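Work package 3, deliverable 3.1, input record:
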Amino acid sequence: MIMSRIEAPRDDVTGNLVDRLLGGLPVEAVLVDPDVTASYANDMASFCPSGTPAVVVLPRTVEQVQHVMRIATELRVPVVPQGARTGLSGAANASDGCIVLSLTKMDRILEINPVDRIAVVEPGVVNATLSRAVNELGLYYPPDPSSWEMCTIGGNIGTASGGLCCVKYGVTAEYVLGLDVVLADGRLMSTGRRTAKGVAGYDMTRLFVGSEGSLGIVVQATLALRPKPPEQLVLAAEFASGAAACDAVCRIMEGGHVPSLLELMDRTTVKAVNDLAHMGLPETTEALLLAAFDTTDPAADLAAVGALCEAAGASQVVPADDAAESELLLQARRLSLTALEAVKGTTMIDDVCVPRSRLGELLEGTERIAGKHQLTIGVVAHAGDGNTHPTVCFDAADPDESRRARESFDEIMALGLELGGTITGEHGVGVLKKEWLAREIGPVGVEMQRAVKGVFDPLGILNPGKLF
Amino acid sequence: MIMSRIEAPRDDVTGNLVDRLLGGLPVEAVLVDPDVTASYANDMASFCPSGTPAVVVLPRTVEQVQHVMRIATELRVPVVPQGARTGLSGAANASDGCIVLSLTKMDRILEINPVDRIAVVEPGVVNATLSRAVNELGLYYPPDPSSWEMCTIGGNIGTASGGLCCVKYGVTAEYVLGLDVVLADGRLMSTGRRTAKGVAGYDMTRLFVGSEGSLGIVVQATLALRPKPPEQLVLAAEFASGAAACDAVCRIMEGGHVPSLLELMDRTTVKAVNDLAHMGLPETTEALLLAAFDTTDPAADLAAVGALCEAAGASQVVPADDAAESELLLQARRLSLTALEAVKGTTMIDDVCVPRSRLGELLEGTERIAGKHQLTIGVVAHAGDGNTHPTVCFDAADPDESRRARESFDEIMALGLELGGTITGEHGVGVLKKEWLAREIGPVGVEMQRAVKGVFDPLGILNPGKLF
């Protein structure tokens, strides 16, 4: 009957797994064609190994997710939860013989409440879809990773993602009030609350945010919203050195300003954007700083920040007059990663975050590392947060250059730790940085984190091989 | 030698414990006089049992805390960590034969960094001391529990405390970036970061915030600071019914306003304050709402909010013209708990938080419960957060009234859960609400929380009998 519609050849183990999954899932929710399942093997990270999934499931209900986890537990099959696979650390990469559990079909916005300022959503809702829906009601969901038009809220929660807004509005974690989670054995657990405050027991909600699917499957989230702020106004400032731009960042933050965005592009990035888009940015620019305010009088804030940039040595300060001009100034920033990708065909995007007072040292050190390895490394940074994305440009067909790219990537992380920073500000650990997590949090930290993982996943079936 | 200075009589078990503690602590840091140790038995909660500590230790260094925990682990002695004991849930109450580990002598502010906007502190620093120190540098540490002049940062972290600021600035948890924690076995673990962002591994920092000393001993904290906002301006609005005041709260929040404070006092509270302080508040006032803004143009914000209050039926709206007038308007709020205490001699302060859209129902239900039990229950609320403190006034010498007080207290929590709220918005679970935690988070939640506790405290020596 149903089984005859499954076309791909299957070995006995997979056959049994698929049969069991079909006991609680409609046939269209169970994908076994290897050509199809192979397309679910990877997220968007470079240098991350992935395996071949046995099956991809696309549940639409909490009960279906519970069914999948019960079967996975019974048969001891690893489960890799996925959103839109826009992640940059390999956290969503399949392992051999796993069930890929894609939450993309659970994509309903269940509630938006303007008095309580919350939204209740399923995990597969795309970030931009939610952002637009709440906007129409005068509300604002701040987290805005670059992939916001594609990435899902579930993925954002799994990777604790950030974005441009964080310098003023913080990261995804700060907007997750409560979760419904399907545990490894298929039981349902609710964490947190839909109230503005609450301290009943341990903060299990935050434990799940950034856990990369290694503790349970998020099937519903209650999110905090803010009132929609006024439209932001942007200022661009050019500097003759990276150090001067970083000095401006420190002056702005020390001066008590609260920009809605404070981004930095280094010389390499400015040049790459110029080469790609002919934007006419002066080639003499060694660093470009973009600041924005979404206050009631953004022009006044921009004037104050512009003066600080000049005091730090800016060669030119260009405040936008309106939203359209602001958008133009942000174009260069938005094109940065595409432009850097065009340099050599492949990029490896790092995500080192340092105390913002050490930003200049990170930029300088990255330039030194690039020189040593004879590589092009462009730095774009959420400068206000000290969160940098040093982006290594390389030819993936050149084994020696690829090796040097990987080495430089690691050296930048080591530098970040030396400067009192973290190996990942917003992209997560996944496969890419698992050796580095131990260096950051130390042996006691790893031991305790593994033990917490053991509480939720005693059989080790939840996204194995990630984080640790 | 040293031992001859210990005066109090001790049995063999306590004697051995004290001897071992003195192996790594100076004699003045080990208190054994029963009259003295008895004074460390309780925090400020009513109706919470407490035991007799075997010894009180007052370490000054991380190494001394590690020593205490090593001895406690070796001898299987329970440890109750304490700050200033201003908590309201019994979380700091001693158990029989325990070591009370007071962190009050570890009270140094180690660093304040205006560029990185962080402070690094020991746990015994008093909230007000830190607040004033950062203020002098143009910075702001928002969490402001009522006890801020006495309570410690370590206690604030242990209980995840809140305050008046939360409606705009959030709770303690949002300001804790990283922790140094001494584990049950004496090992030191660092969590989190000193950067603005970071997602390396599970969020262990947040797990400790609000854990009431049941997972480890916080010995250092890295805290996020904000730029100091402009001085706030306050408005008072009188309403002829609690429902109208709650309607105003909903209109204000739905209207996208971000007050720095939005407090409500019900009729009972207004009357108690009037009786105590003869402030001349009209006896016809059924509810008083206080709103404040610390924006660049607070008068404009107050005007807008005042109009919303009038639309909701306010009988009088009084905006302050300056800081002095604002302070006067806040006096009534600050006196509330003292005034309610004067009604019957004893109070039991609840801490139920509901979605703010349900605030009116909580007020109405509390009045019903007060009537049923023939009790005076005043409600003061952080209305913008839906976080209410229904305060049961009773004569502790009257057993029947005491019983009714306890019953009404529980009924208010049940009502809060019915309305989609939580049993504790900011005071914590401690001893007072441990039966209620299970009702809120359910059996799966309790099981997983206990299992997490087991990871950090396999011997069950960390503040036993709290939370679960």
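Chain A touches chain B through 88 residues (CB under 8 Å).
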